[in-house]
Amino acid sequence: MDIALGLIIGIGLSAACGFRLFVPFLVMGLAHRAGQLPLADGFAWIGTMPAIAAFTTATVLEILAYYIPWVDNLLDTITTPSAAVAGTFLAASQLGEASPLMQWSLAAIAGGGTSLTVQGGTAAVRVVSTGTTGGAGNFLVATLEWTMAVFLAILAVVLPLLCLLVISAVLWKMIALMKSRKQNVTMVEV
User: Of 68, 85, 99, 143, which has the fewest Cβ atoms less than 10 A away?
Assistant: First the structure.
């Protein structure tokens, strides 16, 4: 696989990981098993049946746990650092043609950075939702997050360039919302 294409797929999977940690692993395992997604040396185990079974169980449990009020906020504290590690791992799995130094450097910067940015944005949205709705609005946030995780993970495998455009739009919107929120807080303080 071409390094540039692998990096784009890795970024897409990493962004999905920022929404839900295990969804992209499940999608990647299924795509690899179906012969649709090559993996770097040492990562083929992701497409084995035991791994797919484990990712399926973890995905279902993670999605359900985010529907439990206050547990969702607790999970964000755990998944924020975990997302950076998982995003790095996902990106590295797509960079097999690169030297090990380049593979892991690109994976950490692009994959880990992307998943951490997305996870940080979703955690901020959940905090606002919890604060303004007492947790009642978190059901919608949780639904949007797992839906985006599935959508981005599949799109990363099927149409990686389109996935990159979608991620850029999502990140741009998150940044705009955070800037708007910061300006609103500053105006209230004055």
Answer: 99
